[in-house]
């Protein structure tokens, strides 16, 4: 009698456990009725949970591709791969001389002191960043520059170019070492950057990547700091940043492109970089950042029929 009762109790417990599992696998329908929630975890095509939705402020900073944008042909003078992991590419003639003049002239009235963000608070801190910044007006020529940056990356799904910002550095101007990716998560973040030089009438002011491996071939000395023919000048003390890593010299119209975030959502440590102090003269740069937002599909903008120039 005791054995039969024990067996019955055991069967009841087994059926109960199986019932609970079946209920959970069915999506907890009673919970859905009571809470009005499906309880689903939204998944991306890659199979992982999608990132939080874009804030309205961030969405407004992204360029929505224009369906009928028409731009003249543009050819780079040279494309040179410095690193494959992370991908770092140097581009000669990313902008034409006419485009450089247009961006500089249209940005000039809008420059204001550059700020830094810390724990969500924006503030001026010249010990970290000493420069002026300007949102570049989105003329037809600027829209074509945005599209050129997007096309260079292969029109990647869910990757959007951010609206462009110009930066101006006078004597002493600098930006301490930092990452562009800030808080990287899988499926969202600032996946890539272009640094484009608009003005190079300066001494110093290089863009330094101390964690990149300096190339051996002296052909790179056209674009990076190598001293004189790759050697230290007599009586010259090279800056510590010049001795290791890679420092790109400002060259008007040229650009360097690099990727910030790996496929798994972690940031590349090698993307740690700085704008070194300008010793004399003025450096002007153009930042082009691209933002990944998995699953974000804004409506395409018709936009004006734009042409370079």
TrEMBL record:
Kindly list the GO molecular function terms attached to this UniProt entry.
iron ion binding; L-ascorbic acid binding; procollagen-proline 4-dioxygenase activity
Identify the GO cellular component terms for this protein.
endoplasmic reticulum
Question: What does the record give as cofactor?
Answer: L-ascorbate
Q: Which InterPro entries match?
A: P4HA-like (IPR045054), Pro_4_hyd_alph (IPR006620), Pro_4_hyd_alph_FE2OG_OXY (IPR044862)
Which UniProt key words apply to this protein? Dioxygenase, Iron, Membrane, Metal-binding, Oxidoreductase, Transmembrane, Transmembrane helix
The record's Pfam families line, in alphabetical order, gives:
2OG-FeII_Oxy_3 (PF13640)
| Domain Prolyl 4-hydroxylase alpha subunit span(s) in chain numbering | 86-291
TM ranges are 12-35
Gene3D superfamilies found in the cross-reference section: q2cbj1_9rhob like domain (2.60.120.620)
Protein name per Swiss-Prot or TrEMBL:
Prolyl 4-hydroxylase alpha subunit domain-containing protein
Source species of the chain: Pseudopithomyces chartarum
């Amino acid at each position: 009698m005791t054995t039969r009762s024990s067996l019955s109790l055991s069967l009841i417990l087994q059926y109960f456990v199986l019932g609970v599992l079946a209920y959970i696998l069915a999506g907890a329908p009673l919970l859905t009725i009571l809470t009005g929630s499906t309880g689903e975890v939204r998944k991306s095509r890659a199979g992982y949970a999608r990132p939080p939705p874009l804030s309205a402020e961030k969405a407004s900073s992204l360029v929505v591709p224009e369906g009928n944008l028409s731009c003249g042909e543009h050819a780079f003078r040279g494309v040179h791969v410095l690193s494959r992991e992370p991908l770092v590419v140097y581009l000669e003639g990313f902008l034409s001389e006419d485009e450089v003049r247009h961006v500089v002239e249209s940005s000039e009235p809008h420059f204001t002191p550059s700020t830094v963000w810390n724990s969500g608070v924006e503030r001026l801190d010249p010990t970290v960043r000493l420069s002026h910044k300007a949102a570049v007006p989105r003329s037809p020529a600027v829209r074509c520059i945005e599209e050129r940056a997007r096309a260079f990356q292969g029109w990647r799904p869910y990757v959007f170019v951010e609206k462009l910002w110009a930066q101006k550095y006078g004597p002493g101007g600098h930006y301490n070492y930092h990452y562009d990716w800030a808080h990287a998560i899988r499926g969202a973040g600032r996946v890539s950057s272009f640094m484009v030089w608009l003005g190079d009438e300066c001494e110093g002011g290089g863009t330094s990547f101390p964690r990149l491996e300096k190339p051996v071939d002296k052909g790179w000395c056209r674009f990076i700091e190598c001293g004189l023919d790759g050697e230290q000048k007599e009586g010259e003390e090279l800056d510590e940043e010049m001795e290791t890593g890679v420092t790109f010299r400002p060259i008007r119209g040229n650009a360097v492109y690099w990727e910030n975030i790996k496929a798994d959502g972690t940031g590349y440590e090698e993307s740690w970089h700085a704008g070194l102090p300008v010793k004399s003269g003025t450096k002007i740069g153009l930042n082009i950042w691209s933002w990944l937002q998995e699953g974000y599909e804004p409506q395409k903008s018709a936009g004006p029929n734009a042409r370079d120039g």
